Amino acid sequence: MSPAAASAPGHLRRILLSLLGPREDLWREALRLDHSDWEALAALANQHRIDAHLHGRLARGELRIKVPPFIAENWRDVHREWGLVALRQRADLFEAVRALGKAGIENVALKGSWLAWHAWPNAAERPKRDLDLLVPTNRALDAFYVLRAAGYRQDIASARKPEEMVGNAKHMPQLTSPRGTVLEVHMHAWEPPGSLDHSMPPPDDAAILADAIGYADGDPVRYPARHHMFAHLAIHAVYSGRLDAGPLVLGDIDYLLRGGEVDWPRLWDDARLGGWLRGAALLVALVDRWRLPGLVQRAGCPVQVDDNVLDESADLLLQDLTQRKASGLLVGLRDSYAEAGLAGLAARAAERLRGGNRARHPGADAAATGTTYLAWLARRSGETLAQLRSHEARSISAKASKLGRWLDASD
């Protein structure tokens, strides 16, 4: 194994991030990777859904390094597969929007739906796990059942019944289209304050709905205005998951800005008032480092982001997603201990063991598993204990907690 892989996964993470932008100083490091290093890098790229974009960069001549043929061929195949998925998702999005429109339900497609087709070079390069449609809270239940009537099914059990989720959850239970596309009806663009272990900016859903824009090229969908798109990307990436959504957001901001400039003074004012100023500054600084050199100055960023915050953010962007649950648990335990000592730690652990958000309502389409609570608890506890022994989970949780403290600091 080469020194690059032996030194730490962090070195491979930084090489991989460099392949997403103009960092030719790190491209040269990739030339020294051996077969096993490339396999590890490719696995990480696949886990974070950036291999299709890497194929696109190679094909357009933006990435000027020699990639091993077995990796390049795999990236090409993944690009083709995501292209087919994107076409299916687009067809389902259009049908869902038209069904809701016939029912008189206002809706806006969040994040990736616009970015994939109207910002990125190719929709295949911006893979989406699901579609998110924001609707007014008082029409969310109607929207859920309109889509059910259109053939969507609830395959995954939810912690609460749909009727119990109106107004106090981010979205209704996940639905699956007849073609297999996953869709969520959102009442909020991001998690409402109090729904996570850490603080969240207040919702701005009414403004997102009111300011949404449409297109005249046969696309019936309305999307967030550029300003709200940036805000949603920043809050989702930095606050909702402490960067665990991965490096696609760097390309999102890059291609968003290529299509037109954001009103930066307004954005910084809104970020300051909404409590997400540091998160927006961090995202701008990350895009500056890995995608668009000079963006910090161009945007007039009012917060200086320390180099150590940027360095550790690279590990958070490309963390091992198989350890995400354990890392999240450890973050909660760390934060509870920091806030309330052993009593807080014990309360957080007890909440975890109670399984407060355990899926209890399968809906009409999900088959009952017959799993007892005690059996679920035994399995969940065993999985958690095994994951908590992971060095990766402990390292990532420490960095996520540190990032949380930095975000909560006042300017």
Characterize the structure shown.
The chain has 411 residues and is mainly alpha-helical. The chain has three domains: 3-78; 89-319, Beta Polymerase, domain 2; 322-408, no CATH class. Strand 3 and strand 4 form a beta hairpin. It is 58% helix and 3% strand. The longest helix is centred in the N-terminal third of the chain and has 34 residues, at 69-102. The chain is built from 19 helices and four strands. It has a four-stranded mixed beta sheet. It has helices at residues 3-7, 9-18, 24-30, 35-47, 51-59, 69-102, 112-118, 140-149, 162-165, 205-211, 226-240, 248-258, 264-274, 277-290, 295-299, 307-317, 324-354, 373-388, 391-408, and strands at residues 108-109, 131-134, 175-176, 182-186. Helix 2 crosses helix 4, helix 16 crosses helix 19 and helix 17 (324-354) runs antiparallel to helix 18.
Percent helix: 55-70%
Say what the CATH topology of the largest domain is. Answer: Beta Polymerase, domain 2
CATH class of the largest domain: Alpha Beta
* General shape: globular
Strand content: under 5%
Helix-strand topology string? HHHHHHEHEHHEEHHHHHHHHHH
What is Rg?
21 Å
Total helix count? Answer: 19
Please state how the strands of the largest beta sheet are arranged side by side.
Answer: 1-2-4-3
CATH-defined architecture of the largest domain? 2-Layer Sandwich
Number of distinct beta strands: 4
Low-confidence stretches: 1-8, 353-359, 367-373
Largest sheet: 4 strands, mixed
Number of domains: 3
| Mean pLDDT metric | 87
Q: Would you tell me the structural class of the helices and strands?
A: mainly alpha
Distance between the termini: 45 Å
